Prior knowledge:
elongated
Amino acid sequence: MTLPWLPPNIKPLNRLHVSDGLLIDAERWRLAHDYHRHRQNAHFQSLNQPGIVSDMGVRVIEPPNDIPSAYRDKRWLQIQPGIAIDLFGNLIVIPEPIDFRITSAALMGKPLMVYLVVSYVDPDGLVREENGNGDIVTESFRIDEKNSPPAEWEVELCRILLQPGEVELSTALDAWFPGVNNLDLRYRPQANARTQAVVRLAQVVKNTPEDAQIYANLAYLSQAIAGLYPVWQGFNEIGQFTLQSPGEINDLITYDVLYFKTHPSLSLSPGEFDILSQYIEMGGVLLVEASIKGSKVEELIGLQHQLQEAIARMEISLNVPNETNETSGKTASASRNEQLANYLEIHKSLEEELISIKSALSEEINTLSSAFKKFARDLGIPLEDLDSLSRNHPLRTQPFLFSALPTVNGQALKILAGGGIIIFIGNLSAAWGLDEKLSLGRETIRTAQEMGINILHYARTRRKLTQLQKAKEFPITQVPD
Length: 481
């Protein structure tokens, strides 16, 4: 299931008007009960997310005894009894174990992902047997094997990555890391309370090696939303756009945030400019990270980090007492004092150098800020430094409170914001996930992710408030036959 939930159809319910002497026939009886059923489904769909309620395990089995020899292979599974609820609030009950054979084959020499799903079947839509019990019908279900992700009305039971050639299904040695031909039950949705919002992130791709790292960092941030801010959750896929085709805007406007990393000297083509303008106008937020690679800012940050480390080492040395003995006398004390004086002089020199570096860094960052402010003005949006905005600005206070902005790799974050554009100078996105050397501390990652969630909260809320003031089409959700 791609989306965790969809809202109920905007359609009034019809119920039977009851009066004395009303003749109850089959049609009126059905109308009366359909009203309660639709009301129950709408209630579930408004407050809950679909998924598995209990059990519905899947295991590998040997071929059943009554199966012809042509189908007696290693492709057999058994779905265990259990209960699930679908997107529309329909109860799916599997009352007894069901044997199922995977028939898909990986062609063209490439592995194939297969999804095993279950869906609700309304008995009113089935052809009933003439000699059956006409007074009682049992709500049913169907199990399907698909080569595409589950549809909204389907509940995933498991997925399997089939290898080309002969297939022999097996249970993974480690359920967290299934391989080819192993049952993968990690993505089964669980029925639970519906979140208030699903946040969707996208990135501008430039066909560079950096695209993959950016995708991973955005995915880490999206994954962290549910844990750090449980009333929301992140969409399970990061959108990717090139801004080269005008038709991209139709998909782009479904995303809350569009991230891209660029130099301050960026120049947009008329087509790119038009797409971004439409996106912002429709409520989207453009999140721009200033690329400082190879710039004066990167050099100054490196010098600042080196000076800070040197000062820290010196302060540790000053706090380590010297070992003395009775024979050292006044000579040792004088030597210690002389050493201390030298340390203090060097320490003072380093502090002065650090102040100078910080001043130069601040000037360079202000120059970067001016370049990005011009970029925003071209889009018709004035930018302001977050420090100069209200101390209760949502980027600083919702949902997490920040007095000072995070520091990543020795650089304090600087944020410029206005309307549908947020620009940050500082390597914030690098701390949303795992770095190459696994050197970032947990506190650094947690703080960066909380700042990231504040940005997403601002963006998602802005998009909602903007779209509530625009005309909107309301297509009727299509339920499968």
